[in-house]
Amino acid sequence: ATPMALLVGTARGVQLGILIKGPQILESTRRVDTIVLDKTGTVTSGRMSLAAVVPADGEAGAEVLRFAGAAEAGSEHPIAAAVTAAAAAAEAQALAGVGTGAAATLPALEDFASTQGLGVQAVVEGRLVLVGRPGWLAEQWAVELPTELAERQAELEASGGTVVAVAWDGRARGILSVTDTVKPNSAAAVAQMRALGLTPMLVTGDNERVARAVAAEVGIDLVRAGVLPSEKADVVRALQAEGRIVAMVGDGVNDAVALATADLGIAMGTGTDVAIEASDLTLVRSDLVAVVDAIRLSRGTLATIK
Ligand code: ADP
Ligand code: MG
């Protein structure tokens, strides 16, 4: 394609809400045959809400939520946003009931740290609080869920929940389930990708049950679940090793390496700065139909004007 055609294509992209880093990127867009989609915030809205609090025997649900909310206040993850908002709302309601009129605040946190794709830790009221993947608490912290909580975890995951464990002072205190919804256009976008001959795949750090449920809802049959942030790029490389030309679509800090590794990195406009910087294209409206528009645009521009 001529430089002029590429510039025209780039300008048309802007009209479609697709920000293209450089005109030459339309060339790699045109060659893509496989589209790897991150789940949370890409296929789903990423606005999670708290669906259940299950305390361990002898614990109070309100306490579990309060400590988890306080620890998660240090994180920007969608799970953290859901837990902190629910905890703050519960505190406000409890205070209103007492009639103090005092501003509801969660306890302060100290020594916060997060581990990408696994969970968070913080000291709250002198206790070391952990919130994260049950497997991370078990392997990294030797905190196992009691049988009754492990059973509830399986039930909540079967109904589409993302379950995190809450522990302090070395003991599991409860589990929380958060849920997310598929974006309105995701299924239509996947259907259009297939119509263009593209192969969609879902990749997520979330559990297998949730990943399968979301994939089924939007019409994807290739799923990689439980993938650590560092492993998302490995998924892309394995597809490239099969000779595929891979586009990766994501929004999170945890997607950045995979976005940079892919032949074409596509970031959601609502995504983190790190994801946008690692990408070749940014979708202003964070709507997956724009991925299809970008591919149509690249094929059209590059096929007709030579
Ligand atoms: P995705 O690939 O869907 O964007 P992530 O890699 O961000 O998911 O997270 C994977 C898993 O790690 C989550 O399902 C959760 O179990 C755990 N996790 C990550 N961040 C947090 C957090 N701030 N609080 C609790 N759990 C977390
Ligand atoms: Mg994401």
TrEMBL record:
Compartments (UniProt record): Cell membrane
Family recorded in the similarity comment: Belongs to the cation transport ATPase (P-type) (TC 3.A.3) family. Type IB subfamily.
Name of the protein this chain belongs to: Heavy metal translocating P-type ATPase
Origin species: Agromyces salentinus
Residues of the full protein shown: 411 to 716 of 768
